[in-house]
Amino acid sequence: MLKIDHLKKQYGAFTLDCSLEVPPGRITGLVGQNGAGKSTTFKAALGLIFPEGGSIRVLGRDIRTLTREDRQKLGVVLSDSGFSGYLNIKDLASIQKNLYETFDAPAFLARAEAFGLPAGKQIKTFSTGMKAKLKVLCALSHQAKLLLLDEPTAGLDVIARDFVLNLLREYMEEDEERSILISSHISGDLESLCDDVYLIHKGTILLHEDTDRFLSHYGVIKADPALYASLDKEHLLRVKKESYGYRCLTDQRAFYAENYPQAVIEKGSIDEVITMMIQGETI
Amino acid sequence: MKGLLLKDWKLLLHQKNFFLMLMVIAAFLSSSVSNASFLFTYLTVVGAMFTLSTISYDEFDNGNVFLFSLPITRRGYAGEKYLFGLLLGGGWYLISFLLTSLSSFWKTGTLSLEILESAAGALPSLLLLLALMIPLQLKFGSEKSRVALLLAVGAAVVLAILGEKLAGSLGLDPAAALNRAAAMPLWIFLGLILGSSLLLLGISYGISVRILEKKEF
User: Chain A interface, mutation test: which of B55, B56, B66, B214, most A Cβ atoms within 10 Å?
Assistant: First the structure.
């Protein structure tokens, strides 16, 4: 569905060098700090910026040769951009009907009403949550094969986030060939939604792992200096000095639990892995 | 392109009060101003300016990033702006024609030749405005494009003065050439101006496409 191979883009001192793949039927997450390169990756995948190197294939075609018909198969949410705030939902229905052959205007309007979005009010008067719901609703209303969602839950409260994530789950259940690339800096969202996650930092992919493996294999060992000295370091990915000793990230939690029963080992989470991968040191 | 035209039309409808005001001014001018040419040019140009405001709407709040992720092409977007400008300017052009004709008919009982000449003369204004402003606005955005327009007009004046001096030093007489052009039958003269304006509009469209194809969002 989407294949990015060594995408390169330079902005002053910032260099993006990113490779990732979203196969059919998968929800892939892209996590990282603000300014890590998530939005640049999305913009490149949408052909909005011109890479200085590498290749991007969307729906099996080079991004530079993507046609209008191909673009109809994409559903896009961008956190800092959308339809003009001067338009209303009725306007969006008629505009999208003329942009997408498969756009279902009555269903769009019915769902908007069900979501509590007033059809006749200008979008600029909507709350953050309403705007976010509307963006996702637009992306889901034309049977897109690939959803590219950059921070679709940014600025939302827990209930609204859950609502949006449920919409995405339902959308995937309707057709097993559909795929999603979603970015967020709220890793809890991704843990519950994604099949796999890429961690991007300073323009480079630091880690790619199946979400299940994050949760089942990764762990953080809290070790005092004596325990740390005795630890087998082979499976430690990162180490961070703490007041009590050392905090160690491993992708072999079971190994350490079995061989060091006295060690305090916390289960892995994407947040923990991000923090350790970025702040910790390699051995 | 239909989707984009519809978007711009919907954006325009949200300025309907301004449109109504323009209609009132038009009606007032058509009954009080004897110079039909002024009315034609004023209404057509103001009407066409709305096209430029739709470019500003697209840019506002980082909107272009999302807009160009939709199933449109950069060439199609440029084409739509010219088409929208022609449709809108053309719409106001027809309104001007209708109002001045009615006014003339009311006052004199006939349709004066001046109205037809003014109508023909206003068209190049519309085409030249679109040809100049659309690429400037796409390249520099709504704020900087005004400065760019001033610079472009300034540069055109400087070039004209330099051209006149150069022609003088080569023994050519631009004033005589202008006199010869003015001596042509009016309809041929207007036809030439209109043809040149259309050619410039075509060149301008090509430039706009190039600007958009090189633009990052």
Answer: B66
